[in-house]
Amino acid sequence: xxxxxxxxxxxxxxxxxxxxxxxxxxxxxxxxxxxxxxxxxxxxxxxxxxxxxxxxxxxxxxxxxxxxxxxxxxxxxxxxxxxxxxxxxxxxxxxxxxxxxxxxxxxxxxxxxxxxxxxxxxxxxxxxxxxxxxxxxxxxxxxxxxxxxxxxxxxxxxxxxxxxxxxxxxxxxxxxxxxxxxxxxxxxxxxxxxxxxxxxxxxxxxxxxxxxxxxxxxxxxxxxxxxxxxxxxxxxxxxxxxxxxxxxxxxxxxxxxxxxxxxxxxxxxxxxxxxxxxxxxxxxxxxxxxxxxxxxxxxxxxxxxxxxxxxxxxxxxxxxxxxxxxxxxxxxxxxxxxxxxxxxxxxxxxxxxxxxxxxxxxxxxxxxxxxxxxxxxxxxxxxxxxxxxxxxxxxxxxxxxxxxxxxxxxxxxxxxxxxxxxxxxxxxxxxxxxxxxxxxxxxxxxxxxxxxxxxxxxxxxxxxxxxxxxxxxxxxxxxxx
Amino acid sequence: xxxxxxxxxxxxxxxxxxxxxxxxxxxxxxxxxxxxxxxxxxxxxxxxxxxxxxxxxxxxxxxxxxxxxxxxxxxxxxxxxxxxxxxxxxxxxxxxxxxxxxxxxxxxxxxxxxxxxxxxxxxxxxxxxxxxxxxxxxxxxxxxxxxxxxxxxxxxxxxxxxxxxxxxxxxxxxxxxxxxxxxxxxxxxxxxxxxxxxxxxxxxxxxxxxxxxxxxxxxxxxxxxxxxxxxxxxxxxxxxxxxxxxxxxxxxxxxxxxxxxxxxxxxxxxxxxxxxxxxxxxxxxxxxxxxxxxxxxxxxxxxxxxxxxxxxxxxxxxxxxxxxxxxxxxxxxxxxxxxxxxxxxxxxxxxxxxxxxxxxxxxxxxxxxxxxxxxxxxxxxxxxxxxxxxxxxxxxxxxxxxxxxxxxxxxxxxxxxxxxxxxxxxxx
Lengths: 481, 428
Prior knowledge:
The complex is a heterodimer of chains A (481) and B (428).
Chain A: H1 8-16, E1 21-22, H2 25-28, E2 44-46, H3 51-64, E3 68-71, E4 88-91, E5 98-102, E6 107-110, H4 116-123, E7 128-129, H5 142-148, H6 155-158, E8 165-171, E9 177-181, H7 192-196, E10 205-212, E11 214-215, E12 219-227, H8 230-242, E13 249-254, H9 255-265, E14 275-283, H10 285-301, E15 304-309, H11 313-324, H12 326-329, E16 336-339, H13 349-362, E17 367-371, E18 380-384, H14 389-408, H15 427-430, H16 433-447, H17 474-480
Parallel strand pairs in A: 2-4, 3-4
Antiparallel strand pairs in A: 1-2, 5-6, 6-10, 7-11, 8-9, 8-10, 12-14, 12-15, 13-14, 13-17, 16-18, 17-18
Helix pairs in contact in A: 1-3, 8-13, 9-11, 13-14
Chain B: H1 17-20, H2 34-39, H3 46-57, H4 65-72, H5 79-83, H6 90-104, H7 109-122, H8 126-141, H9 144-150, H10 153-157, H11 160-165, E1 181-182, E2 190-194, H12 198-203, H13 205-217, E3 220-223, H14 233-238, H15 241-255, E4 262-265, H16 268-274, H17 277-280, H18 288-297, E5 298-300, H19 301-308, E6 320-323, H20 327-330, H21 337-345, E7 349-351, H22 366-369, H23 371-386, E8 392-395, H24 398-410, E9 416-419, H25 420-427
Parallel strand pairs in B: 2-3, 2-4, 4-5, 6-7, 6-8, 8-9
Antiparallel strand pairs in B: 1-3
Helix pairs in contact in B: 13-25, 19-21, 23-24
């Protein structure tokens, strides 16, 4: 891909405005990273302010055959917003207005650059909120959430982003502006809205999003189950759901991680614990009280040392602060970390946790665990120092081994971070060549010249196709779970 | 990575691996950064600024115009430091980056002149500061200001915003108070040294007098140590580390006395800098230990009053008040509840606005040097304030007061802007 196509930048300036385009190397270097570990420098960055501009930009990019990647806040962990070297970044930081709040229908329509938490804050006085709550919600954008189909602790009860998006405005590579869905909860015909969510910017660029707003629950109870070992905590996860309770959130922190996090947030996590479960229940007052008692009993029966309950909103907020800031808090003890996003059936959590422990020993690495236990969505955090190239090789090997184990357990390689660049080569272990061909044909129907976020999701040609695993149809697998 | 990169920073104090490698570029700081919200560009975000320091240190980015532009645009408000889970010492990275700029970057002739005159000559000497302040006062009082404003001359010169923001120089400077002792009224409960401040002394002398009244009426004996100087905050934030160290030593000599329970200031920026003296002088064998002792005694006025407890007020403040956290109180010193407690204690109905702890864009001389961005940030802030319809906007720092007053005028709001101490003064 040519780096500086003559005329590209001038055209972009005409479309979006003189101060809405970056093309100097010293600025472009600031768009070579996200929150993950990949880096690649774009050839230009443009900041559109409306859909019409995005449409014109796409028409231009298609005409000039320039690779395009949309970018929200760059908080992703799978390289989803990392540009192709020399490509064009469309940054949505200036398309960040909340267009409409429809209280009666509990819907909001927003531009992609709206920050996740800002939407919830904006409608808080109406008793409403936006449910998907990735740990980066203070900074990540709803456009990014849509692209990656982001989750968060509370998706155990409420589902991930796709369950909360009812309509999207999309700009196709041709520049055409199309609308899928609307405010209605169910779409008719093809579920194009659902298809757009999680497509990682490879089929179209979302320029407006209609989302559901949930009513704040009448009662919330936040419990902290303290365990002597990771194993005890892991066994408790499925024991809770087996008891017929679906918590709003069910999170695990292992001992090493909680000690690191505690140094930052002083949430009151017990420093000598082997692991804790952070369990949140929500709903009607009476139901929540009953469930809180039941969950406490299950935890104690599973050898919990104690179960604490947050006595007020302040204590609850502290417990969650510890959880949500945990990833980044590791910066206190390591220059870099690599986090994975594997998923296993929750009954396999004890096994996979043991496996992760063995991998850490085998590769002589420190691996922290903090994850959405209720969803079986793991986030092993592997510490490293980028100055040590040999160690980084071990990190990548360890990470692949963990994900392979997830696949063996009947799980998958991503729960919410997206496939992006980092896991594309593992897709062929999860899907057959035929499966992948169908997906690629679908992408090509929209993005046939592969100018939209190329090199994402699908294995690179000539790579990995030969290592095709057994067919693991995700739908069939879910039914079997 | 194999070859050792050649840093574009010079030796000496600079952003180092130990400091910047704490940043895991998670991006949680972005939406907390006023300049990122105003401009939307990664270069003007905390993560981006740290990355630019890394790039300069790795030799990939020159210590030149672009780097300087984005570092200059930082408010130094430290909102990002509060947001950062990873504990990145952003303030200290920024100070070091600015020190590098001062050392290695040739600014324009005019900028150099103005900066060296302001930081090198005017601020360090209370005498010179007083003479300058009198000139400005003459401009403000003689009718020249009215003439300049009325004729549109300021607009023509593009400095009307700056003119509106400049503090009104008071008739009596606080310098006359140097060396005085104000006895406690009623039962004496404490004895403090008060920093009168450089700008504070010429533009906010009345606030200093109010501070003294509130303290003495609450049973505190107030000393104004004669040989105190400017705290060094403006120098520190502009990259003049050595000058700020000189002032730190000066103030330690002047105010670190066993008879003082606390060293009190009514300026958040001064308080936060004085609390940094230990870090600033850690390699100074003569002063390191005393700097630590000094830091232990430094208190913001609200922090001190909340700690010793107020006596019953003579009058109650019956008003709807929104308190706006000064950055150097909330983010640099972690003081959030004390001022709110004090306001509630004297009877105010305290209402919380969205983003109360987000920078107003004042940031020392930022509203003068980066006026356009500052006004953008201010207008966003005023929108949040207006949403809770306060009768009084309270804050705890003079720079914020000036800025918020300007903001209220821009928005056509009739709201009073006051320092917490002023409101306390009215209650006692």
